Fold these 2 entries.
Entry 1:
Amino acid sequence: MSPVDLSALVVIPALNEEGSVADVVRDVRTVYPRATCLVVDDGSTDRTADRARTAGAQVLQLPFNLGVGGAMRAGFRFARAHGYDVVVQVDADGQHDAAMIAELIDGLADADLVIGARFAGRGDYGVRGPRKWAMRALSSVMSRVARTRLTDVTSGFKAAGPRAVALFADEFPAEYLGDTIEALVIASRAGLTVRQIPVEMRARQAGVPSHRPFKAAVYLLRACAAFLLAMMRPRAVLGGDS
Ligand SMILES: Nc1nc2c(ncn2[C@@H]2O[C@H](COP(=O)(O)OP(=O)(O)OP(=O)(O)O)[C@@H](O)[C@H]2O)c(=O)[nH]1
Ligand SMILES: [Mg+2]
């Protein structure tokens, strides 16, 4: 099936993003009207769910906070239950340029998972200090695991094709950082193909970031632990239930 024939679900994990979620939903619906927008509101204490609904999204409200991985697993299950071929993950803070969604989906013509990557020659998004080194080290290790050059393995801007949707509906990891590193390890080890396309990343449009620079050292340690644990897990089998 060519990418233009695929039905797409745009999943937007959100925690307290009332200041930006409506604009994100409107942008997605404007540039990619054929997609359904699903905001997974993960125990927000503000008006995220209302704003998302008013802007035209479907909203899944989780009873308590599961983190981005748990929210995405719910999104993949929704996709499987409703027969969507493709899931595109987009942040609710406005950092991802919805205009790139079509390119991500086009990339699925020769991959199961397409990452919208910063530091790949487009845009001037930068991180500094330990977080930068952590991201570089992880990218180099993950490039080996995925057998392709990856520069941004912690990007949340991704498209998953039919085989990845089937795998992730059962296996998407809910642990901390599972939605990025562990998900890539699971996909690569299950034989799925991963590639990246360069994207520009914008500044967050409102709200509060979940990382802060002083947490960078902890982030590095946790990321390494997440990687090692992911490599120790048994391989996921596509179409199996182990
Ligand atoms: N479902 C869910 N979404 C979350 C949670 N924490 C953050 N998010 C969402 O995940 C997306 C990415 O989170 P951010 O805090 O922007 O993380 P980031 O983009 O890596 O960091 P910045 O560059 O500082 O913005 C945003 O849409 C958040 O609303 C959570 O616990 N559950
Ligand atoms: Mg962000």
Note: Helices lie at 21-31, 48-54, 67-81, 101-107, 129-146, 162-171, 178-189, 216-232.
Entry 2:
Amino acid sequence: MKVTFPHMGNTCIVVKALFEYLDIDFITPPVCSKRTLELGTKYAPELACLPLKINIGNFIESIEKGADTIVMTGGCGPCRFGYYAEVQREILKDLGYNVDLFVLELPNGDIQEFLRRVRKLIGRQSLWKALIAIKKATKVSIELDQLDKLSFQVRPREKVKGKTDWIMRKFQHQVSKVKGPENIIRLINETRKELEAIETDPSIAPLKIGIVGEIYTVIEPFTNFKIEQLLGSMGIEVDRSLNVSHWIVEHMIKQALHLRKHRPYEEAAQPYLSTMIGGHAQDTIGNSVLYARQGYDGVIQLYPFTCMPEIVAESILPAVSNDLDIPILTLIIDELTGEAGYKTRIEAFVDMLARRKERKLRNNEYVLSGN
Ligand code: SF4
């Protein structure tokens, strides 16, 4: 059995840590590229969401490298994620690929079925070892997100432009070569020290932008044209409201174990969207409110064309923007999105935020928030 999985930003490193600890033979899907997207677009239904298309491309590229089993997480609720796996299974079958695709759904209901699927994956290894592997992989995800966060803070303040990008690129290259959670964490620690050693200009008070939206588009750099890097190189400090560790801890582990969740965005979203409508719409609203309260200069919402929960969120965001006086830009992405037009919209938004901040500083209206 050679297992593969969808590509979603740093999730690949987390799954790599998990599978290596469990000695599972696996193929990491190649980094998402134009070819991945073209394959997905060719074989998926035209109006399917972009992540489904890219994942089809990931699976085909991994199958070409020898994968025969696909593992993915499942979803439920009122958006299309719940039937992703079935659609993808049928598409691959129609294409003549003889692969096993199974979904590790949260054990809300049939725990026996969940354990049967886990057993199929880990073979004769004990469930205890699988639990330790999950713990270690979760730690990797937390460290990775902290490393990203540090790079978001250093990038706009670095004296030698491009240093942060160079270190993060080196990390991505090296991490594919090290094996096991411990070595991955060691590499993360070394990279953190390199980032901390970058010479920064303490007098810089960058504009701050929060990124919200649909999780795949927010987390996968191929889909969002490396938005954090782009904004950072323009001198903006970014914060990503969704990340892999939050998803694993809050949406998978705590939900499975029925533990108390830490989701401040739910309370923040209450006046605008008081219930979960699928996807991350409530996160989008709640986190936009939280960014406004924290004194951020602006918010960017990202989502794939036809994403139903984010369309609803987009229709509510103008009220958040008006009530809390925070500019919000929405960027909708599909396979036809051109990088140049996308960047132009971001540059125009940043220009507007810079002029707005200057005016506020002149008029003494600016609320200090670590700026
Ligand atoms: S959240 Fe949006 S993009 Fe993701 S599956 Fe649901 S509808 Fe599709």
Note: The chain has three domains: 3-125, 126-202, 206-371.
